[in-house]
Design brief:
The protein is an all-alpha fold. The protein has a domain of 71 residues: Ornithine 4,5 aminomutase S component, alpha subunit-like (Helicase, Ruva Protein, domain 3, Orthogonal Bundle), CATH 1.10.8.1000. 66% of the residues lie in helices and 0% in strands. The N and C termini lie far apart (54 Å).
């Protein structure tokens, strides 16, 4: 069975657009698809996902578990464990690994929590 070529009829609504307008339309449509996914990611995370992020940041599974447990205990889960490590490291002038290890050992949590006080989740 041969497929009938209907390309011209399907592109009729785009035929009059310039390259710049097509480029803008592409990114607008892309945002329509991606924005809801980003919102889902912000609002729906799990300890497993957060540990996975930390694993990709170079932490061991035991270190990642300790950091995620600390994030949960302090109500920072909506921020993301990797974000907590990153923001704290930047604030303290430390590298990511040093910061994450300190958090895994129970240190710096008061400073981490202060970084997110007053921010909407």
């Amino acid at each position: 069975m041969k497929r009938e070529d209907d390309f011209q009829s399907r592109r009729a609504h785009l035929a009059e657009l310039s390259d710049a307008e097509l480029h803008q339309r592409f990114w607008a449509l892309t945002a329509e698809v991606v924005d809801p996914l980003l919102e889902l990611g912000k609002d729906n995370t799990t300890p497993s996902i957060e540990r996975s992020v930390l694993l990709r940041m170079g932490f061991s599974s035991l270190e990642a578990r300790a950091i995620v447990d600390g994030v949960i205990d302090r109500g920072l889960m909506g921020r993301g464990a990797g974000h907590v490590v990153f923001k704290l490291a930047k604030s303290e002038g430390l590298d990511l690994r040093t910061t994450g290890l300190a958090l895994a050992e129970g240190q710096l949590w008061d400073r981490a929590a202060c970084l997110f006080e007053g921010e909407a989740s």
